[in-house]
Write a structure and sequence with these properties.
transport; 14 helices; mainly alpha; MetI-like fold
């Protein structure tokens, strides 16, 4: 098990290094001049050249990449070109906010998706199965930004049950209750597609488990369906649920940009949008690297969890 963890960790580290190169490559060859954006059109050429030298932008590509990678290894992620503050001071709070939103969306998606999938699988072909399938199709086809706007109009504007934007009330105490109230609508909006995917996978897994020989043997011996579900089937459908859950968390983390925009959630999307507009290279590189590193770490955790859940793999 320790050797397996070491191999997976080494592979993840290699992928992360490759990601750093690709991120730097894309940003390096992207159009736009950060110095020109900083100084405006009226700046002299001498001033622009001096700033490029100070920022190291006049050096060759590999030299710039090597300096940036060496800084990452030393924990130095650079300074924002436009805001003149450390990149981590800008992105870490935004990262935490995005992580909270993605995690809440995953909890909603797993809870609703697994529940509907299990009930549909137990009643395959019945009216509830057909209704859940229709709900799943509707959720999968619903644009996230449109759903967010509709929820704001109905729940916030018409019913006045929940706040429509932000993370806390401006005059509030920043309590957990305040955070939860602001979190419900964006988290549900981001979770709709994941609910549909998880529900379909869970339904298929339950149907396959019910048709397996061991399930039929226990059913013929008189074991009730609820007991069969919780004592036998649950262990067999847990692995695919863990796998799809990890994949959906990575997708949610990188894909909540529309939700953060609609609900004015102070996450990574706003910071990256501003950085891309201003061609703020250190912020763009670090922000994209944070998202990629999150994907890699989540996949590593899921792989190890699947090995732990499978006794034959552990052996």
């Amino acid at each position: 098990m320790i050797a397996l963890i070491a191999r997976r960790a080494a592979a993840s580290l290699a992928i992360l290094v490759l990601v750093t190169f690709l991120v730097f490559l894309v940003v390096y060859f992207s159009p736009g001049d950060p110095v020109a954006i900083m100084l405006g059109r009226d700046a002299s050429g001498e001033t622009a050249d001096q700033i490029r030298r100070d920022l190291g932008l006049d050096r060759p590509f590999l030299v710039q990449y090597g300096a940036w990678l060496w800084g990452l290894l030393g924990g130095h992620f650079g300074t924002s070109i436009t805001m003149h503050v450390l990149v981590l001071d800008i992105l870490v709070p935004a990262y935490v906010n995005t992580f909270i939103l993605a995690l809440a969306s995953l909890v909603i998606a797993l809870t609703v998706g697994v529940l509907l999938g299990v009930l549909s699988g137990l009643r395959a072909g019945g009216w509830f199965d057909r209704l859940a399938a229709a709900i799943s199709e509707g959720l999968a086809a619903t644009p996230v930004f449109w759903l967010g706007i509709m929820l704001i109009w109905l729940v916030s504007k018409q019913l006045r049950w929940l706040p429509s934007s932000g993370m806390y009330n401006l005059r509030g105490s920043h309590s957990l209750a305040d955070l939860f109230a602001h979190l419900v609508l964006p988290a549900f909006s981001a979770a709709v597609l994941a609910i549909a995917i998880i529900m379909r996978l869970t339904r298929a897994s339950v149907i396959d488990a019910l048709n397996a020989d061991y399930a039929r043997m226990f059913a013929s011996a008189g074991m009730s369906t609820p007991r069969l579900l919780f004592t036998q089937i649950a262990r067999n459908i847990l692995a695919p649920i863990v796998s799809i859950g990890g994949l959906q968390f990575g997708t949610l983390f990188g894909g909540v940009i529309f939700v953060e925009t609609v609900f004015a959630w102070p996450g990574l999307s706003a910071q990256l949008y501003n950085a891309i507009t201003a061609h703020d290279i250190p912020v763009i590189q670090t922000g994209v690297l944070m998202i990629a590193a999150t994907f890699i770490v989540i996949n590593l955790i899921v792989d190890l969890a699947l090995v732990w859940l499978n006794p034959r793999a552990r052996a």
